[in-house]
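Q&A FORM
Asked by: J.P.
Topic: structure of Mitochondrial substrate carrier family protein

PROVIDED:
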Amino acid sequence: MPAVRNIWREGGVLGFFRGNGLNVLKVAPESAIRFYTYEMLKDFIVHAKGGDKANIGTTGRLFAGGVAGAVAQTAIYPMDLVKTRLQTFACENGKIPNLGAMTRDIWVQEGPRAFYRGLIPSLLGIIPYSGIDLAAYETLKEMSKKYMLHDSEPGPLVQLGCGTLSGALGATCVYPLQVVRTSSNMGAAYKGMSDVFRRTFQHEGIRGFYKGIFPNMLKVVPSASITYMVYEAMKKSLDLEDMLLCCCIRLQLQLT
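REPLIED BY: S.T.
REPLY: Here is the structure written out as tokens.
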């Protein structure tokens, strides 16, 4: 609540949407890359195991989801860093920092490498999160299809429920690394990932690595559930599975 009051005092209602335009520009390619890479890797694993989708298993889903998350995160990370700076840096005189000016200042004052500061802890967080999230969602969906729906296709409400549980599980497991990543993005405040770990534990203990998890869950849970519901609807309407199958077969032919 103190954070909510401070944001309201500094920027009013618009303060809660600081950096959201960049967030929208970031999340679209990130989600597209993550889901497309996941489906491609999953189909590749299935065909490598003989073409039976039941053979992919939880390990295959975890691997495909983790790699897909890493690829997507690396591709959009500079935008993610600038978004974090916009959201967390204090506004001077109540004005929202200019996106172009902030990007230019990072480039001039900190160099090009600064746009990838915190990438390692980010990848350490996104790989298990994406793997757990995607694997848990598909496992829960299959369980609901088998035990609750008697082999009929899950509807939107079931998809929302599976997305809620998978998103909550993934976010809780990797939240400490998210805290480290966010702190690492804060310019010169810290000297690196190990410094963030040491100072956070020294000043706040274990609880410091879970600071802010409640508002994070309020964001992640509905976001994940809505994302999966929309993704399932779009996958059916675009015949994505057939398209990915053709791409995978073509890739195998090229490799052989």
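FOLLOW-UP: DSSP finds nine helices and no strands in the chain.
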